[in-house]
Specification:
Helix content: 10-25%
CATH architecture of one domain: 3-Layer(aba) Sandwich
Structural class: alpha/beta
Largest sheet: 7 strands, mixed
Radius of gyration: 18 Å
Shape: globular
CATH superfamily of one domain: Collagenase (Catalytic Domain)
Bound molecules: zinc ion
Distance between the termini: 33 Å
CATH topology of one domain: Collagenase (Catalytic Domain)
Order of helices and strands: EHEEHEHHEEEHH
Strand content: 15-25%
Number of helices: 6
CATH class of one domain: Alpha Beta
Number of strands: 7
Length: 300
């Protein structure tokens, strides 16, 4: 598995970007806590106290029907996603404030709420913080995640575990896909570079929309440039095929020799934060179907 990623403005994004995250086929659960790894803070949000067990409850409204083609058709209306934030830092490096995390969740609700994916809402359940220099700097290909994630992950298949660290040179984040959950539930989740949070230091990518992009992957979406100009691409009909990642917000550039414009405003492209404003109805349909297939909680 390789990493899904967004490149920084300084480093061209890796081309073979969007898949899941570790090269190792085994989920390694290591119960041995390294000396330098210490969970130094854990707190529950007020909402967490009010909704103590909501992780384990039915968090989805809607109805599922079987279509003419025999496939489950999702009709989701209100999918509340519990979010567990894990701050990984190295001494002072990587610290983020509670207010930044609050603003990050608000940005997710704003981005998804203004789109056809508005059935998904995000609720912060709690934040923990770990001081560990190797976890802080690990690139997406690092086996460190096989150790880190199982130690920190919380909740069921519908719970979003959002890890904040420095990710590694050239990456702004990476995510696992819904289909990965079954085989590797403990590695499920999203990692984003801490400087991309609202108020972070990464100019152009510091409004919280990198998390929106990565959570798009976590919901089953690919990049519009997946597969270039040929093939099934991102499995979505209303995002024009695209030869390469778009990194600049130039409108009107035609895509793959077609009459359609390159989707520079799509959240799943590589353009700067202020350019990425859209999900399409086709992406919503795919995310709904992926949710129904892989992340729908079992009714109590
Ligand atoms: Zn991506």
């Amino acid at each position: 598995m390789t990493a899904s990623s967004v490149g920084t403005p300084l480093t061209p994004p890796p081309r073979a970007a969007c898949q899941t995250q570790t090269p190792d086929d085994e989920v390694k659960v290591d119960n041995d806590t390294p000396a330098e790894s210490k969970v130094v803070k854990e707190k529950e949000s007020e909402q967490d106290k009010l909704k103590k067990d909501s992780d384990n409850q039915q968090g989805t409204s809607g109805e599922l029907t079987t279509g003419a083609d025999g496939q489950v058709q999702a009709r989701l209306t209100d999918v509340r996603i519990p979010v567990h934030v894990h701050v990984i830092r190295s001494a002072e490096a990587g610290k983020v404030s509670a207010d930044q995390i609050k603003q990050q969740i608000e940005q997710l609700n704003k981005d998804f709420g203004a789109s056809p994916l508005s059935m998904f809402t995000f609720q912060l359940m709690g934040t923990d913080e770990t001081d560990n220099s190797s976890w802080f700097t690990a690139p997406p290909t690092s086996s460190v995640y096989n150790e880190m994630k199982p130690k920190l992950r919380k909740g069921d298949k519908n719970a979003l575990n959002l890890y904040l660290n420095d990710v590694g040179e050239g990456y702004l984040g990476f995510a696992t896909f819904p289909a990965d959950y079954r085989a590797k539930p403990q590695l499920d989740g999203v990692v984003v570079k801490y400087t991309t949070l609202p108020g972070g230091s990464l100019t152009g990518y510091n409004t919280g929309k990198i998390a929106t992009h990565e959570i798009g992957h976590w919901l089953g979406l690919y990049h519009p440039f997946q597969g270039g100009c040929t093939g099934p691409g991102d499995e979505v009909d209303d995002t024009p095929a695209e030869a390469d990642p778009a990194t600049e917000c130039t409108e009107g550039v035609k895509s793959c020799g077609s009459d359609s414009d390159i989707p520079v405003h799509n959240h799943m492209n590589y353009t700067p934060d202020n350019c990425r404003t859209e999900f399409t109805p086709g992406q919503a349909k795919r995310a709904e179907n992926q949710w129904a297939a892989y992340r729908q909680p079992t009714a109590a």
